[in-house]
Fold:
Amino acid sequence: MGRWNRTGKKVVPLKAGQNGSSQTAAPKPAGRSGSRKRRFAVIAVWIFVLVMLSGIVGYFIYEQQIKPGKHYRGYQITSRIERGDTADTHYLQYGSRILRYNRDGISVLDGEGTIFWTAAYNMQNPTVSMAGNYVAVAEVGGRQLFVYNEKGTASEMEILSDILQISVSEQGEVAVLMQEEGRNEIQIIDPYAAGDKKKVEILTYVEEDGYAMAIALSKDGAKLVTSYFLAEGNRLTSNLTFYNFTGVGQGVNANRIVGIYPYEDVIFAELAFLDNNTVCAYGDNRLSVFSMRQKPELRWEQEYSQRLRWTANNEDYIAVVIETEDVSTAGLLQVYEKGGSKTVERKLSFVCRGLGLHKEDFWVYSELECLILRPGNKVKYEGEFQEGVQYLFAGKEPDQFFQVNGQYIEEMRLKDTAE
Structure:
């Protein structure tokens, strides 16, 4: 049955499969279902890859940002090893490991008991300086000097005068401050040089220059800072003297002195290079920071009404504990970025026994109490020790620390919950 259109022609309905022309319908392409399966497989693989990448990124963010920034409420001891050393043994933070030394020798270990290297010597009063993988040990008042590399291989030297202080570079060069009657001598020694190991020699005289207090060698061994004080009647003057052994210093004078900063009524007993171009000078009541790309320039400083009791630094931060006049507190902890911005200030409820920092963790502790902070005054952990602690060090992981007490070195894992 048809119908009529406007032209008067009869319209006949098309049958199924007809398109109104003489051509037949195109056949269905072969293999379309296989193509669809391959497309679904590719999509599934990409989804799997994205999920895996998301998991990796999420884990990285957790480990590097969320986990370190957590506020832990307790800890547990997960392993311990016998100290097996003498009462005169000292411990230092050495990267994420521990450096241990006493009169009989030195070793590098981790808190799980793995000893990476050990060496023996015989010194009555050893002092240690560390930079990069190098460790220098010398006998204060004696003439022995050892420099160890990352494998514990030693270079031994006999110094001609009594040693007061040493400072090692990341290449193993050592600045040695020596004392003779009426004068001081500083030598920079390269223990690995084939010929003459003495690179620099500086002589000073007590009557003219004063008494030597401290030295610091830059990480690349190209710069040196010294601290001397001179007493004249009731007047006390300290001089911070900066040396540059590159072409810059050679063009200034024969001694390669590129700057001298005098201070009155303050003694700088400790100096440190945070990096090759930043010098920190710790006075008894002052903190002074200098930039030294070529010649020194005072970058910033802080003067205190009370004494500095504890100091520590790494490449990015400077930490100090200061005495206070407030009888309700046992001290004041301050941490600065090397540019001068204060990132932590905290009154302490206990007398400080030790101060440390590693990456962006800053900790202060007594024998029975501990406080670990992060930039912005954020508390990472605050609590009491289960046993009396002599030293506290950071491990490789954000929640890992090592404590040293009278008998053991113990691995300490921070926890979300209190005991």
Summary: Helices lie at 32-66, 206-209, 247-250.
